[in-house]
From TrEMBL:
This protein's name: Acetylajmalan esterase
Pfam families in the record: Lipase_GDSL
UniProt GO MF annotations: hydrolase activity, acting on ester bonds
TM regions (residue ranges): none
Keyword Glycosyltransferase (UniProt): no
Origin: domain of life: Eukaryota
Family that this chain belongs to: Belongs to the 'GDSL' lipolytic enzyme family.
Assigned keywords, A-Z: Glycoprotein, Hydrolase, Signal
Amino acid sequence: MLCILSLTSIPIALLFSPSSYLLQETIMASVFHKLIVLRLLVLCCFLFSCVPQCADAHPLKICKFDQIYQLGDSISDTGNLIREVPIGAATAFARLPYGETFFKNATGRCSNGRLMIDYIAMDAGLPFLPPYKNLDAADFEHGVNFAVAGSTALPSQALAAQHIFSPVTNSSLNVQLDWMFNHFNSICLNSRDCVEKLQNALFMVGEIGGNDYNYAIFQGKTMEELRSMVPDVVGTVVDAARKVIEVGGKRVVIPGNFPIGCLPIYKTAFQTNISAAYDENQCLNHLNEFAKYHNEELQKAIHTLKQQKPNAVVVYADYYNAYKFLLRVATFHGFEREKACCGTGGKYNFNMMRMCGGAGVEVCSHPERYMSWDGVHLTQQGYKIMAAWLVNKIFPHLLCHF
């Protein structure tokens, strides 16, 4: 078990006495060394399956989070969409093979098993987040998941004004925020009580905004039109984080977008024989460049938010490079990098008209050897590796006490 040195255990007078400079340097070096060892051990655990040796390597436990609150879309939804009628309950996510690997039944997660938020909760020593819509059976003591698969950052009315239709749900980010604040009203006596109750909570604001662009792309918008959407999408996401801070959130994580040009859904839709259209990972350059543009603008807005809210800890979660890391290690793990596990036909085993969960659509025999589950979302194994990378990257920036 790792033991992290706490500076609070050292007498202040000793730390700051003129004769203690060498001791201070030794202590800080020890803390830094232990943090580096911890980060390396986390990656070892997830990537090389050395589970017995790293059972206690859960850095987020050091933060002592007692709750996690999640806003977002299908990357994080643990069961809200399938409880929306009539559309959500009729989606493929409400039935097998979704959920088959870990849960043995469909939970509403858009994968064969656990998601990144599940692994983050596990790392923090907390149970899986219950979906907000599961009001009958949910225990919300350790947090709530408000994410809805198919949701957008911008309200459906704002998208409609740009002639973009949100086909799955109207539970956009503003709706999810309303749910969150209604929940807080039910557990807090007043605003001061909320600040007290939320001081040890972790807030995940996204990933969200990807569907705004997905719907725009598949409804015929140009790249120029997509770029014009970025300020509004980014502004909406960061404004949501600001509202979370104002209600009492102390630690907020805001993820960026995936390298969407690497996903089978896009590689199928924009397949070309022009080799220059692809990068070294066989991902579509123009779509990844757009994703990077969104992420750059998001990071600029986060920087401004941190200046405006200096008492809160706001951290950018780099989903783009987490996915790129997964691509790099895929060969080492023997993963199938190109094809979806659950799908039909073509170079990428993806067909928009015959998607996972549909009649006659087959599932691969070994999902643990695939990155992509259904051409849009990742497998449990893919999310596991991404979550390990993310925890390793964001943990030092959460400024938890060691």
